[in-house]
Every structure is written in C-alpha cells, then in structure tokens.
Amino acid sequence: MEKIHTFDENEITFHNFDVHVSKVQAGHMSSVATLIEYFKEPISEDKYKEIYMTRAFLVWMTHMSAKEMKDLPDEIDVLLKDHPATAFATLCKSANIQHQIIHGIGKNIGYIPGQTDGDGGLIKTAWLAFKSNDRWHLVDPQRFLGAVRGFRRGDEILLEYQGKTVLEEQTATSGTKLIYVIDFWFCLHPSIFVITLLPDDPEWQLLPPEKRMTKSDFISFPFLSPNFFTAKLQLLSEQTCVLHTKNGRCTVTFGADKSNARFISMSYKLSLRKGTGNLTGVDVQDLPLLVMYAPSIDTFSFNIRFPVAAEYIFKTFVTAPGIDGDGYQICSVFRIICSEPDPNCKNLPLDVGSIGYGFGYKAVDFGLKSPSITQTNVVVKCSENDDVLMKELTFQIEDDKIDEIEFSSDIVGEENKENVVTETHVDEVSGKLHVKAGIKKEGEYALSIIARDKQNGQRYSRIINYLLTTKSFEEDYDLQLRSKKRKRDLTLGSRRQELLDKKNALSERIKAIESEIDHLKKFYKENRNNKRTQTEEVSMESQLATETKATQTDELLCVNGEATQTDIVTTLVSDKETQCEEIQSDVNRTTETTSDDTKIFVLKAVEKDGNIVIIAEKSEGEQEIEPIPAVQKSRTCAVL
User: Fold this and answer.
1) First to last CA, the chain
2) CA dihedral angle for residue 352, residue 356, residue 361, residue 365, rounded to 10 degrees
3) Rounded to an integer, what distance in angstroms lies between the CA atom of residue 492 and that of residue 123?
4) What percent of the chain has pLDDT over 90?
5) What digits encode the pLDDT tens for the residues 308-363?
6) Closest Cα to residue 63, out of 33, 23, 16?
7) Beta carbons within 8 Å of 32's beta carbon, 6+ residues apart
C-alpha cells in the first residue's frame, strides 16, 4: 500500500499548529502580510516551514468559510471570494513559496464511471503544487475545504441496499455543502491524486514517465473515493470502472491487510440506470436478492447476479478507523453493463446481514480457524435416492474453546429442510469441527454454522454462512484465482515499495549526516584556523617577552655592581648542538676582545633539560644565567 501523503507523518503533526491558525483574530488580518506573519509565529526555522505555511493557508480558508466575519479589509475580503486555488496561489506568492497552478480535468461528485462528456462527464478544474525541501507537493484547495453530503443523480432505480430489496426510483437532490478540513487532499501522493485529477501537462502528474496516465487510462480507471485509501483497501478484481457481466454475473473484490481487516466493514447499493432496462410490471416481492456479500479474513467480495439486461450502478461503502463521519461512507462506484441476464437468477436463500457469506472474523471470535473450504459457494452433487453424497467441511478449534463452545448447523432453503441432510460433530481428540451436508434436490440452500457458549446457555448465533448449490460456475473459480494472484502481486509490490521507501529514507538520512559532517568539518577548520592565528599571536608575544628577558639577562653582566649594555649576536638554529657551538663561539670572541685590567667572566653554553644554559664562571664558582629554550635564538654575553 503506497503512502497517502508526501510528507513524513512521523515527523510532522498539525494539531497544535491548526489550533494556532483557528485562533486568528481580526487584528491579524489587517493585510495579507500581517496574516502571514501571524502564521509564521510557531514555525521559527523549521525545515518543513513551507508545508506548515501552506497548511495554515488552507485551514484558515476553511475556518473563514465556516463563519461570517464582517468589515474585513478589502484585500482579505477579495482573497476569500476568489476561487480556492487562486486564493491559495496568492498566499503562496505573498509568503515567497514556490508554487504552480495546474489546470486539467477532474471527476466530480456526479461523475458516471467511464463517461467523458455531458451531464455526469468530466469537468475542467484547477489545483496546485508547492515546493518544500526541493520536493513538489500536490494539493486541491477546493476539495480540502469540505464536501457535499446527500447528493443523488436521480436517474437511477435503487434495487438493493445492504441486503434488502428496495425497488425505488431515486429523486435528484443537490445535497448539502459541509465545510470542514479534509486532510486527504493536502500533499496527496501523486499516484493517488492522478486517479481523480488529470493535469493537461503530463509533467505535473509528478510521476515517472512509465507510470503516467493517459486520458484513456484516467477515464477507465476505477472510481475510488478517499475512504478507499484511508481504509487501506486494495482492488483485487478488474482494474476498470466499467465492468461487463459474464452469464449475467459479476464480482467486485477488495483486499485488506489481515491486521486491519477485522476493523473494516463494508456495504453496498445496487441501482439500475433508468431507460437502460425494462422492469415494467416487476413487483418488489418478485425481485430476487441479487448481491452476495462475502467478507473473509482479508478480502471483501460482492458477487452480483443480474435479472435483466441493462446498465447498473454499483456503489460500495466502508467503515474503518480513520474515516470521518458516522456509519458507512462511500468507497467506490462502478458502472456494470449486463448484455444478458443470469438464466439462473434466483433469490438468495438467506439475508446474512453484516457477517455475509464465507469464513470471517465472527467464526474466529468463536475459536474456529483453518477452514477446509475458503470459497463462499459449496458445490454438492445432488442425490435423489437414499444414498446421499455428503460434502464435508472441517475447522480447527482453539484449545481453550473446545469445552466452552457448542457448535451446530442450520439450513435455510428454497422449499424446506427435507431437501438437505446435515451432520455436525466435534472431535475432541483432534480438536476439529466436522460439518457434513448433502442435497436431495437441485437448487440453492444456505448452510449456517451456529454456535453458543455452553456456560451461560445463550441462544445460538450464526457465525458462518455458505451457499450450498448443485451448480458449478467455472468463472467463479477463475475469478477467485485471479483475485488471489492480484493480492499476491499487490502484497509483493507493497513490500517492494516499503523497501524502496526505507532505502530512500536511509539515503536521505545518509545525505543529512554527510551534510552535517561537512558542516562540522568546515566549522572545525575555521575554528582551528582561528585558534592557530591566536596561538601564533600568543607565541609571538611570548617569544618577544622571552627574548626581552634573555636580552636583559645576557646584558646584565655586572662589573663592580654596575650593569652595562653590549651588542647581542643572534643566530637562528634548530639543532641544539649547533646552538651550543654558536653560543660558545660568540662567548670566545667576546672574551678575546676584553682588556687585561677588566674582571672577566668565562662563559660557556651547554644543553640542560632541553634548554641552552649560559654559565658564567667566576673565582667564587659557577653561576647559571636564565635558561634559553633550545628552539630560541643563541645569544652571547659581553663583558666590560
């Protein structure tokens, strides 16, 4: 399942920000500029600031549409009266956010699947893309601001609704516009966005060239609502919005992740388009129940039979975590063309309600698992003699339920239960439930497996329903195989996409780390250069101070208690031995120039503890003059 949005929902949350936007006051709206400054207050330097800002624009537009505010400045008043796409673009421009208005065609609420023009056809519309962190994000401001509830086209005859036959002409209603935030249309993933809105310029699909839709693809693609994606469903049956029956039958199947399917429930409406088929004189009592709803552990199937050749509209509805509104919400719409009716179209023998046909979570709740038959139809050979051929179904029972639950079976048939033979047995050693059924007369029958808690003596509840039939339809088996294959393909595709998303996320993280390392390196280099400059300055000052002290020491050779300056010979050297030799040479030269009547200090230069030390020798003994570092300059001392 592809991600619904193009921002990271683990890093970005809008609740507190939306609250801030909803608290906007008249004083914040003296101009567009002051309004934008108010939106910026909680953002600071966030790397997702464009996403937060554009979200603020849409939440504010929704907020202002839901209430009346008088005496607004002309600039704000004009903005709110503009088309939502135009207003959004104006705000983006004022906030210096890169954006693009996109023109194209869309499917609106009255769209008839597969129709291209006229009433129920495609509409011209506009939406936008904006850029954040070098990535384009798609948004439809008009759909973000709310939806219409209660719309009906009025050109249909409702045949069946949630397992009940209706046969009622529909009256056209325009519905009611509700103003509220619909998050789905903000930063919607391009592969989902393009199902409803197709840009004139293919580049703005924001998809790789090999994944882009043509207009023909767009028209034929299934009409799936936002609730389909919110419920994380997959379409396992034909990938088209216009279905054609085979032998007067058709199947629509959805898949769901096992971890999520338990919390999903689906329903349906089946209508006939007026003027496409003849139901004259048909009484509602004579019309058979046409749709077999079959929810399983991870699929939801609708097996439909058609009584007359005509065009039909089949709508599915869903309730699931995360879907707004009470009760079932629209999920998908299909147009079904039936060229010939089902010759065996008979009333389904049982209204199974929400648990439907087949093995589902109601059976799991009563401790059953591993059914031997996963199909909804159980084909049984008819035996009109006393030797009835029995079809066996087996289920594993959870260990803790074997002694707690009592199982049995029940039959509802076309005529009476005398036509069906059933047996129910629990093998406590193997922990298996065995149910056998045999048919004595051609037809269809509903086999219900029922259960109750032994302890409290409650009434039996239906936990599984199967359609027992003597007729086999190869296309049903083929459809099931195709659905299983598509589910495997989608599962593999989803896993590949997850791995790709993880790889991309890891690549982005590596880039971020590399960028941070480069930043730290640059910072370290600049800091090191600054420290080196400071060190050199300190070293020069220290060297100057040392030289001054050394010079003072060298020149304070006292004769008769008085200090006299003399010239200094300095030589830059790096080798300690050379330093000693140079200093000693200077000392010797100085001594030779001294007159006989002067008291002479005999000087020598030696290495001591890594320093060059000058020794002054007198009759009283040797005396050390202040050490000179080995890396410093050599010095001589003069005498008077």
Assistant:
1) 100
2) 10
3) 36
4) 45
5) 899 999 999 999 999 988 889 999 999 999 999 887 776 666 667 678 899 999 99
6) 23
7) 75, 76, 79, 90, 91, 94
Encoding tokens for residue 198?
A: 């197709």
State how far Cα 51 lies from the chain centre.
15
- What's the whole-model pTM score? 0.74
**CB-based contacts of 76, cutoff 8 Å, min separation 6:** 29, 31, 32, 35
**Strand 444-453 and strand 405-413: pairing?**
antiparallel
575-592 pLDDT per residue, tens: 444 444 545 554 444 443
Q: How many Cα atoms sit within 13 Å of 458 on the Cβ side? A: 13
CB-count exposure of residue 110 (10 Å: 0-12, 13-18, 19+)? middle
CB 452 within 8 A of CB 397: no
Half-sphere exposure at residue 300, Cβ-oriented, CA atoms within 13 angstroms: 28
Q: How far apart are CA 63 and CA 507, in angstroms?
A: 39
Bridge partner list, 412 = 446
Nearest Cα neighbor of 95 from 65, 56, 64, 127 is 56
Helix residue spans in 69-214 (DSSP H): 74-81, 84-94, 141-144, 190-196
Phi, psi of 579, rounded to the nearest 5 degrees: -60, -45
**What is the pLDDT at residue 72?**
87
The three-state (H, E, C) secondary structure of 190-252, written as one string: HHHHHHHEEECCHHHHCCCHHHCCCHHHHHHCCEECHHHHHCCEEECCCCCCEEECECCEEEE
Q: pLDDT at position 347, please?
A: 64
Considering only CA atoms, which of 143, 141, 44 is closest in space to residue 99?
Answer: 141
pLDDT in tens, 224-265: 999 999 999 999 999 999 999 998 999 999 999 888 899 999
72-87 burial by CB neighbour count: b if 16+ within 10 A, else e? Answer: eeeebeebeeeebbeb
Q: In whole angstroms, give the CA distance from residue 277 to residue 638.
A: 129
Could you tell me whether strands 329-338 and 242-244 are parallel, antiparallel, or unpaired per DSSP bridges? Answer: parallel
